[in-house]
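>> Question from a student workshop board

For tomorrow's exercise we were told to take the sequence and the ligand below, predict the bound structure, and bring the output to class. My setup keeps failing. Could a helper post the expected result so I can at least see what it should look like? The ligand is zinc ion.
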Amino acid sequence: MDLKSAKKIVNEAEKALTNAQLAYVENDALFRRNFNTWFGKTTKASIEDVVYTLALMGGEIKHDNFRIELGAPSGSENANVLHFKKKYLHGREPVDQIWRANKEDADAGNPSPMTFRPQMLMMPFIDQTQQSQVETFLHELAHFAAGVIDYNPPSCYDVSGTNYCKLQGVDIAVRNAENVGFFIQSFLFE
Ligand SMILES: [Zn+2]
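>> Workshop helper replied:
Here is what the output should look like for this input. Compare the format with yours to find the bug.
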């Protein structure tokens, strides 16, 4: 893993995010199909939650509000990030207000660090049947940008983890980082 491959991952993830946001506006059938696959049955609130998460995540990439570090191996960890200050998220504040708070930190020389571990290289670049590099980045970005959590770890990880969270209900699934990562990545497979 070098910074160039890290950049490639971020670019591909940004493409997936854009595709997902476009599908929401222009292709309801596709958006709902991928939603059903990775989160379960739609509700109005759960769709709104996901659309808000997509907007937050896209904005953090666009504003360059985090910094990627290449870390040494650490147990079974693939990557990690410092979680976003969740106090901003309880009232669903306007996304630009949240980006601005993160941007102030970034401009002050404290962009939130995201660490990619060497194990990231062992994964496929994109894949819908197991964890991938792009999906893992999206997972970490969901933590940072939208305060999305790891629900009852380690049950929540990998494709089996997304199914576990789906079984807990759509409101849990849309707030689990692995489901969010796989959902967004799925828009690269159209
Ligand atoms: Zn996580």
